[in-house]
Structures are given as structure tokens and as C-alpha cells.
Amino acid sequence: MTTYDVPRHPATASVAAVGARGHETSTSGTASARLGWLRIVVGILSRTVLGTLVGLLLWAAVPAVIGWTPTTVMTGSMEPRIHPGDVVVARPVAESSIHRGQVLLFQDPDHADHLRLHRYDDNGQGTQIVTKGDANPTADSTPIDRSAVVGVGYLRVPYIGTPFVWAAGHQWGHLLVTGSALMLLVLGAQADRSLRRELKGEGRGEGGAASAPEDATGTSSATGTSGASVSGTSTVTVSTGLVLASVAAPATAAGPASRRSTRLADRRERRLRRLRGAAGTLAVAGLVGGLALTLVVSGGAGAAFSSQAANKTSSFAAASAYDCLMPAVTDSPVFSYGYNEGSGTSALDSSSTGRAGTLSTGVTRVAGACGSSPYVTLNGTSGAVTTNAPAVTAPTAFTVESWINLPANSTGGKIIGFGNQASGLSGQYDRQIWASSTGVITFGTYNGGTKTVSTTKTYRDGTWHHVAGTVTAAGVLTLYVDGAVVGTMSNAAGEPMTGYWRVGYDNLSGWPNIPASSANYWFSGSLDDTAAYNTALSAATIAQHVKNGR
Predict the structure, then answer these.
(1) Cβ(165)–Cβ(65) under 8 Å?
(2) Sign of CA dihedral 55, 57, 62, 63
(3) How far is CA 296 from the centre of its chain?
(4) What is the rounded CA–CA span in Å between residue 29 and residue 231?
(5) With CB atoms 3.0 to 4.6 Å apart as the test, which of 38, 63, 251, 523 could cross-link to 68 if both were Cys?
(6) pLDDT tens digit string along 188-237?
């Protein structure tokens, strides 16, 4: 119960006037009580949510003090147990204590300065470890040494690192909404601040004789539900449900010294409250900043999300998981689309980077089975495969490859390439393979001018062909069709840039042997097993890819 002391004039007040306004006072008091309860509920709930968030932040950050490694999970390769945005804390262990079945945090063998979080699946050659994501259909392509293990997953803090995932994916809208919600929680936590101050003031005896039923000067107290009796220098207490208001006239006036002492005490209390508030704000800011620094320094743990959570009882899921449709992914691609999902608009990435793609409206899936792999057909006007993955630095040495099928009426188009835009037409674009309107295949780079190699024959024959292009660290460019070298060119290093791997569409303006018009930059034909690598694969390796088939 909260008591408010309001000074009034001496006993000339009319009891009848108080009684006449009793109903109005009661109604006003009830509304005030409801508002007070609402402020209390909002304040308690806001502080509870903020306290929970701070607790989760502490849970994730404090283990770093003792040498454990907290890291944010960036992809869904360990679903359904570990989700993107979870913070997993890894505990250092001796190499002899690492065993099959453990979730390991280790240095990514395919990407320097990155961490990967996967399960110890099997033993490799010698003391090597074969790892695998729980959601992935196949094991990782590159085994790891035991010395690469940073630690064993010990603690999972759910979703607290989600803002880091959003930031990596440039999802600024999500971050803005979350930041606004946190600001509302901070404001909500202060909703009942004035009420708590009043309660503290009453606890110190502020407000004069409000807590004394009768004092030595003969001051009396009268209590009623909607009215009061007044006599002499009295205290009139009006109860209005939840709020109890006292109208008091002190029996004696305090002296000047007493008033100065009270003012000084009030000033000290206000200063202390401000200091406590500032210290709490700094502590929370320091905690959040420390966690952010810890996670940024540790790096996010990511790996391929190359399979949806399988429904083992589903006949379709079982068909899409046949070994013949899930060949082992080798040679460490930066992305690899097999188009084996069977339905939906997702092109799952079976590499170790988790750069899943999205099929646009102009892409049609064609079902398959053992002996005839599923693939996608692009309509030549709106079909492409895009990705929401972050931009990357274009590699110096690289390989791009895909199986293609150009029907007799194909208008050609971009097969695969690198551009500075994730969708639409890029302003910078190279490291690309495309088909002309007549079916001539061309591979090229750009650095002050175009560097290209083209086929002399056309491939609009309605059959499947494997096309690949490589550029070595020394700048030697080579085009392959069906495993055979078409031609090479020296001094063909690509232009330094940052951007995205594009499949099925991007700019081709200014290059030779391009489709008849910009409307035909959209690829017209079928694709399967499209991939890119940050190394120049050897001729023998590309020949093996052709031998492996689709």
C-alpha cells in the first residue's frame, strides 16, 4: 500500500465538501491504482527479461576467463541440436581424451582463420579425425589432425549470438528491430521507478506524521472509504481501494536547522541514486562489450548446411538421400550445388562454407533417381540461383565448373561467375563461364581488359556436357569441356574485387561471344553439380570429376 501525504489548510475545511466529492475521489483513486499496477507489471517484466539476457551473456562470456572458447554458430550444419545463433563454449582437452561422438571445435582445414563445429564421426588415416555435421548427409571432405582441435563442446547458450549471424548476413533490419526492442525494455524497466522511490521515502519516515495514528498534541486520525471527519489539526485519511491517501497538517513546524538537514540528506540520496544508476549502466555496457569482443576474437563456428533435417519415415526424404545422389564432395569447394533436394526453393550447399542458394521463380526442378541425377532447368528469362551469404574476396587462383545441357533453342547466358552484386546486374564481373546464343562456350577474366578462351564448336545439342575453367596463382587460364583442354592463356589473373558467386545470371556487357541481347544474359538450359573452388584444380582432377559423372 502506498501512502501520499498532502498538506491541507486547518480545520476550516468542510466535511460535507469532502463527502460530496467522495465519488470523484474514489473513481480517480481506482484509475490511479490501475495505472500503478500496470507500471509495476511492466517494470517487473522488463527487468526480468533484461536480467535473463544479462545472465545468458554472462553464461557465454565468463568461461573465456578460464581459457575456454565461446564461439557463435553461424550455420545450420549441426541442427537440430545446435542452431545458428547459439553460443557454444568449448573446453580444452588433451588430444588423448578426444573420442568418437564428441562435438569438436577445430580450425577449419579449408579456410584459414576460421573455426568449424562438427561431430567426431570416424577415424581417418593415422591419427586424423573425420568430422561430420549432424544435418549433413556425408562426412566433411577434409580430415583434421588432432592438434587442430580447439576444444570439446561443453556448454550451449541458445540464440544469444543471433545478432552476430544477422550482422554477418547484412540483415540490418533484424538488428534495428532487436535494438529498438532492447531500448523499450530499458525504458520499461524504469516504468515503476517513481513508485519505488515513494516507497523508499516512506520507509525512511518521509512525509511527517503519516505513519502515526495520533501524536502528542492531540492530532486525531479519521478513516473512511469515501469521506472523512475533520476536527482541529487533524490528519484525514481517505482510503480509495489500493491507494491510501493521507491529508495531514503537522502539529508543529520544523525548525530551520531541521529543514536544512532534511534537504542535505535528500541531496545525498539523489546523488547516490545517480551514481548507482551510472555504475549499473557501465557494468551492463562493459559486459555486453566484453562478450562482443570475445566472440569477435574467437570467430564464428560454421560449416556446411548441406541437408535438411531428414524425416527417416518419409519415402521422398529416403529417395533423396540415396548414396548415388550424394557423392562425396572432394577438393574443398567454396560452394557446391547438387540440386538433389527434390522440392522447394533451397539449393543446399554440400561444401564446408554453408553458402546455401535460393532458386528464383524461373527455375524448375527435374526429379531423378539412381542412374539419373536430379537437376534444374532455367527458363532464360528469370531463372537463377542467388545466395544471402556474405560477400567474399574474389580468389586469385580458382576453379569454376558445372554440368550443362543446352537445348537446340537455347539463347545461351551466364552459367557461373563472380560479380560485385548479389542479384541484378553487377558493375564488376569476371571469373565467369557463359554460352553464346549459338552454343559457343567461353571462359574469361578481366583486369584492365578481357582475357578469354572460347570453344570452336557449339554445344546446343540437348546432351549433357561438363564445363570448367581454372586460373592458377601465376595467372594461367584454362578452359575445359568434358575433361579436355580447349585452350589456355597467360597473364589472365582476375581483377581484385569483393562480391558474390553467381549462377544463371549476371552482366556480360563488353565481353566477346555473348548472347544476342542483355535480355539473354539469363541462362537458358539445364544445370547440375555447379561448384567453385579457391584453387586451380589439375587437369587430372577435372577429368576425374567428368568420370564421376552427374
Answers:
(1) no
(2) positive
(3) 14
(4) 24
(5) 63
(6) 888 777 766 666 665 555 444 434 444 433 433 434 433 444 334 444 44
For residue 136, is pLDDT > 60?
yes
Q: In the block, which residue shows the cell 567453385?
A: 532
- What does the alpha-carbon distance between residue 376 and residue 346 come to, in Å, rounded to a whole number? 12
pLDDT beyond 60 at 42: yes
| Cβ–Cβ under 8 Å, residues 85 and 78 | no
Contacts of 416 (CB under 8 A, 6+ apart): 400, 401, 402, 432, 433, 501, 502, 503, 530, 532
The pLDDT mean for the chain works out to: 77
Question: What's the distance, Cα to Cα, between the start and end of the chain in Å?
Answer: 77
Look up residue 397 and give its three cell numbers. Answer: 587462383
CA distance 345 to 81: 24
In the prediction, which pLDDT does 191 show? 76
Q: Which set of grid coordinates corresponds to residue 296?
A: 569477435
Instruction: Extract the C-alpha cell encoding 117.
Output: 563445429
Is residue 543 a contact partner of residue 337, using CB atoms and an 8 Å limit? no
Query: CA-to-CA distance for 243 and 275, rounded, in angstroms?
Result: 31
Contact 505, 416 (CB under 8 A): no
What are the backbone dihedrals phi and psi of residue 121, each rounded to the nearest 5 degrees, phi first? -95, -40
**Side chain identity, residue 220:** S
Q: What grid cell was written down for 206?
A: 518521509
Q: State the Rg of the chain over Cα.
A: 36
Mean pLDDT check: name the lowest of 34-48, 310-324, 337-351: 310-324
Residue 183 has φ and ψ, to the nearest 5°, of: -65, -40
User: How many other C-beta atoms can be found within 10 angstroms of the C-beta atom of residue 54?
Assistant: 14
Cis peptide leading into residue 80 (ω within 30°): yes
> Using an 8 Å Cβ cutoff, are 335 and 107 in contact?
no
370's grid cell: 539412381
> Of 332, 337, 339, which Cα lies nearest the Cα of 349?
337
Q: Which DSSP letter does residue 381 get?
A: S
Site of grid cell 517494470: 43
- Shortest CA distance to 73 belongs to which of 82, 61, 81? 82
Q: Which amino acid is at 470?
A: T
